Amino acid sequence: MAKPRVVIVDDDPDFRAPIKAVLINEGIVVQEAESASQLRQIMETFHPDMVLLDVNLPDDSGFNIARHLKQNTYVDVVMLSSMGEVEHRVSGLNSGADYYLPKPVDIRELLAVMRNRFTTQAVKPVRQTGRWTLDTTSWLLTSPDGQQHALNSSEFALLSELTQQSRQGKPSTREALYTAIGNPNYSPESRSLDIHMSRLRHRLSSDQLQFPIKTVRNVGYELTEAIVIV
Question: pTM higher than 0.85, yes or no?
Answer without folding.
Answer: no
